[in-house]
Amino acid sequence: MEAKSTKINYQGTELPTFADAINWKTYWSKSLSRYATGTVIEVGAGIGSSTRYICAHFGIDRCICIEPDPSLAAQLSKLVSAGSLPNYCEIKCGILSDLGLNVKANAIFYIDVLEHIENDMEEVATAATHLMPGGRLVVLSPAFSWLYTPFDKALGHYRRYSRKDVNRLTAPELEVERVFFLDSLGMFLSMGNRLLLRSKAPTIGQIRLWDQKFVPISSYVDRIFGSIAGRSIVIVWKKRLLANATEPL
User: Fold this and answer.
1) 110-157 per-position pLDDT tens digit
2) In DSSP terms, which residues pair with 89 in a beta bridge?
């Protein structure tokens, strides 16, 4: 029987714009690098710009890159063939629920992806079934609903997240390990856009300014304010060990 493959054409246009945000991608990937080990699943791999940074850290021996857009999945396959992505990357066109229940990972990453999924609670519950006991589910998403702008809507974001969403999202097999924020200064830039500019999309120049000037400063400021606020929120869950899990053995 042919494996199920759910195909969704991605409507956003921001992936190439943010692809060169080197400082930002370096910053978040270093902050999350401790979880990139063993078998990793990246949901919504897009054009592979985040995949490169996830794979830049040692400890990964298999990376399953899931992408529902067939054209983007084809691009990812070409990157693997060309050596631009490691040969341990496996490209799957579809969504997480298309994977067989026998596919388990040490870590599952959603890098600016969960906000695109309407039924986020169901998605997190599905992710829990694909984690090994002790494995981590790592979500990085835009923070704070009051920062929701026309740009979010244009990108297909259903929401932005805050700490109050964590309990709603937590599946029975998971326990919250850590919640923190990144890019404190970026939050104020987003606030300015919402109140003053109301731009539907940032320009390449704005992205470069933010990435080159503000992100390096945020990496220091976050040490003080990262537990309180930032442009992005990071939620890390750990799957309970079998002896403590609520799911049947």
Assistant:
1) 999 999 999 999 999 999 999 999 999 999 999 999 998 877 887 889
2) 63
CA distances to 80, 113, 161, 223 from 98, in Å? 21, 17, 26, 39
Q: 240 φ, ψ to 5°?
A: -60, 145
Radius of gyration for the alpha carbons in the chain, expressed in angstroms and rounded: 18
Q: Considering only CA atoms, which of 240, 228, 218 is closest in space to residue 30?
A: 218
pTM for the whole thing? Answer: 0.91
Choose which CATH entry (3.40.50.150, 1.10.569.10, 1.10.10.1320, 3.40.190.10) describes domain 15-242: 3.40.50.150
Domains of the chain by residue range: 15-242
Residues making up the chain, counted from first to last: 249
Structure tokens at 131: 């984690």
